[in-house]
Design a protein that fits this description.
Elements lengths: L2 H4 L4 E3 L8 H6 L4 E4 L15 H10 L4 E5 L5 H11 L3 E2 L8 H10 L6 E5 L2 H11 L2 E4 L14 H12 L9 E3 L4 E2 L2 E2 L4
Parallel strand pairs: 1-6, 1-7, 2-3, 2-5, 3-4, 5-6
Antiparallel strand pairs: 8-9
């Protein structure tokens, strides 16, 4: 697989993972989601799931299997977040390695093509998902309120470097903006 294909997510969401609705999941033909944790679900400094995230998980799990896969090694932190959401999880994934994501797929008993890899990073989450043939979803990082005014230097570098490699960081199919979801219905632009 060439770099521009590895780096292109299938779907780019404006805003956080909370904008990934059951309607989008179903329209994308997904039966499972592998979710990154740090800055995808919670700020890097957070040790708990927000009430908004808990409500999102409750809503989304009605239509799809969920599993957390994190590069983070902190059992106390990642395990605590996973337990508060009542979700299975894997630590130390070393994404873009595929080993722990394969374990998550096995636990879900779903083929990679029916599972979305959701994360905020191109060089870890998107590459890992694309290497397995998963549907990849790139979301904007969730950051702690104290850091909200700072940019995301690692993500900015990844986008810049990806473009140098000849990849256009555009979704393979669609990009969904907040304004495109009205009353739970999606107006997809291609």
């Amino acid at each position: 697989m060439i770099w521009n294909k590895l780096l292109q997510p299938d779907l780019i969401l404006e805003g956080s993972v909370l904008n990934l609705t059951p309607a989008i999941i179903q329209q994308s033909g997904l039966k499972g989601l592998v979710l990154d944790v740090d800055e995808t679900l919670v700020p890097f400094t957070s040790e708990t799931a927000s009430p908004e995230l808990q409500a999102w998980v409750k809503e989304v799990r009605t239509c799809t299997e969920l599993c957390l896969v994190s590069n983070n090694l902190s059992e106390a932190r990642i395990g605590g977040i996973a337990r508060s959401l009542d979700l299975p999880y894997y630590l130390g994934a070393a994404k873009p390695s595929r080993r722990k994501i394969r374990a998550a797929l096995t636990g879900m008993n779903l083929p990679a093509q029916q599972v979305g890899m959701v994360g905020d990073r191109l060089f870890t989450d998107v590459i890992a998902g694309n290497r397995l043939g998963m549907f990849t979803v790139l979301v904007e990082p969730i950051v702690h309120a104290d850091a909200a005014l700072r940019s995301h230097p690692i993500r900015n570098f990844e986008v810049w470097f990806s473009e140098l490699l000849g990849a256009s960081i555009t979704p393979k199919s669609t990009k969904i903006y907040k304004s495109q979801t009205i009353d739970g219905k999606i107006n997809l632009k291609k």
